[in-house]
């Protein structure tokens, strides 16, 4: 079916907007520590396009919106207290290597399947330079996508940011294991580059907050990590490589700084063995949610016991952590669940 024959008006439909509002209010209740009845489950839908966003971002947007219009009834599941299925526009420019590209790394498609990778920088740790953002094609494209979306005046879909990631993740993308060695052998050089990366990530978060209505702005992986308006997100994948002392010394204040840009703080995504960081997580006032994928979800009991009462768990359901076990650990308090495996 041609996208020109799809009625996008359904993406402004009052009934569907009310259903989305009901789903978001339930999530808000969890963050406020309220008894919301059944534990919220999120399994949203991201619009699909045949056209590459890199080739023609306007045609990409046309196709994504048409696909969301065809699936608009999914949001109605929230009307009867069922699974919350937000509809999402995901401009995943270079996937987890979006920031790498802005910082000058060569980003390439490994096998023709949009399997984006970044080549390690040739220069030594400590020599990273701030980018000239207004001259950066990757950033210009990201802004054009936002402007195109806003021009459509469609209220129902959420708009994701690209993957703005986190300082440690990006440092590892740019330097590989050399960055871990620099943290030990030349900590000043490591800190210089972490400062450059953090300043860039903060700048981009602030731009999105200033330019996209908060009711529609979401960080990465919204179909499983949707939060109420005003919350951000960082990627904590590589924190499993650090001791608790290293994370506290090098990374904790930077992750906190990024989350604090958002009016209500935000979430950290975890996908490995990160329990050595629980003391830091508990200390970070702007850290309001921990999203745990399979390996991390297996440690849900430790996270739940070790974090604050105002910190919410987004727990992946899998064979090792069924809903019954989640309920046993949490009693249904401060928890949201999803059945999605490892999403990024």
Architecture overview:
It is a single chain. The chain has helices at 14-31, 57-70, 98-102, 137-152, 167-175, 177-185, 187-211, 222-225, 244-260, 278-283, 294-297, 300-306, 323-330; strands spanning 45-46, 87-89, 107-109, 116-118, 158-160, 217-218, 232-235, 266-270, 287-292, 312-316, 335-338. It is globular. 41% of the residues lie in helices and 12% in strands. The strands form three sheets. It has a five-stranded parallel beta sheet with strand order 7-8-9-10-11. The chain is built from 13 helices and eleven strands. With 344 residues, it is an alpha/beta fold.
Give a short summary of the structure.
This protein has 344 residues and is α/β, with parallel strands linked by helices. 41% of the residues lie in helices and 12% in strands. Helix 13 (323-330) links the parallel strand 10 and strand 11 (335-338).
H/E element order: HEHEHEEHEHHHEHEHEHEHHEHE
Share of helical residues: 40-55%
What is the chains' assembly state?
A: single chain
In angstroms, what is the radius of gyration? 20 Å
Beta-sheet strand percentage?
5-15%
Mean pLDDT, to the nearest integer, reads 95
Low-confidence stretches: none
Largest sheet: 5 strands, parallel
- In whole angstroms, the N-to-C terminal distance is 30 Å
Helix/strand-derived category reads: alpha/beta
Number of helices: 13
Shape: globular
Across the major sheet, the strand order is 7-8-9-10-11
Strand elements, count: 11
